[in-house]
Amino acid sequence: MSSSIPAQSAPSEPQTKIALESKVIAITGANRGIGLGIAECCLVNGAAKIYSIDIGETGDDFQNLSNRYPGQLFAIQADVTKEASISAAVDKIVEEAGALHGMVVNAGRTNHKSALDFTTEEIEALFSVNLFGAFYTARCAARAFIKLGIKGAIVFTASMASYRPNKRVPSTPYGASKAGIRNMTHTLAMEWAQHGIRVNSVSPGLVNTAMTYWVPQQPDWEQQLKYYGGFPRLAEVQELGGAYVYLLSDAASYTTSIDIPVNGVIGIC
């Protein structure tokens, strides 16, 4: 006796417009930095509501964006390293907004030092957020999509460090955690395709955030740029947003299990 997976029908009218009208999107770690830049791009492209799921407090940048989009940007406090905390945040979003269409798994931390110098506590702290927290977040989102009958989208924030080491300031645990994210992307995409859930990732290069303030301060930064090629600058957080918006949109209805590098061709990391 043979069994087969029921074929899914194609959308009645495949979307060609890249937009997020009427969509409710959650983004972990969006109180600032890359996450807040993604939130801005989603709002600019028509998202109905954006929820930042973050362990910290919001700041001036978050409030300024909220003022530009009144009633559309919200913050929920949660700890991504605890699945129950993320599950409660997702439940609250669904209760308030009535739906959840996309989850950007963005919360992360970094720590650059020699592999021989990492303490056990530092390694576990990094993996708890970057890898375990990412898995918990994706799983909570998938459960919500399935319960709601929504063919949702999950987009992980990986890193160019998942492809090759940062030559100047290596971080074995960070690179390994982000490589794990890309593998997770492919595997979850395979598992959850039967539910119509798409799973993809974006790999930023060097982005102008509080985590990379030291990069252009290096005395040989200009020489590095000449050597590595590509655009001779760091990316602004908003320049990453187009990749996320596409992957969250219905225009990407047949796009799953891919990673989009956004690195300006700089080979520095």
Automatic annotation (TrEMBL):
<dbReference type="InterPro" id="IPR002347">
    <property type="entry name" value="SDR_fam"/>
</dbReference>
<dbReference type="GO" id="GO:0016616">
    <property type="term" value="F:oxidoreductase activity, acting on the CH-OH group of donors, NAD or NADP as acceptor"/>
</dbReference>
<comment type="similarity">
    <text>Belongs to the short-chain dehydrogenases/reductases (SDR) family.</text>
</comment>
<keyword id="KW-0521">NADP</keyword>
<dbReference type="Pfam" id="PF13561">
    <property type="entry name" value="adh_short_C2"/>
</dbReference>
<dbReference type="GO" id="GO:0050664">
    <property type="term" value="F:oxidoreductase activity, acting on NAD(P)H, oxygen as acceptor"/>
</dbReference>
<keyword id="KW-0560">Oxidoreductase</keyword>
<dbReference type="InterPro" id="IPR036291">
    <property type="entry name" value="NAD(P)-bd_dom_sf"/>
</dbReference>
<dbReference type="InterPro" id="IPR020904">
    <property type="entry name" value="Sc_DH/Rdtase_CS"/>
</dbReference>
<protein>
    <recommendedName>
        <fullName>Short-chain dehydrogenase/reductase SDR</fullName>
    </recommendedName>
</protein>
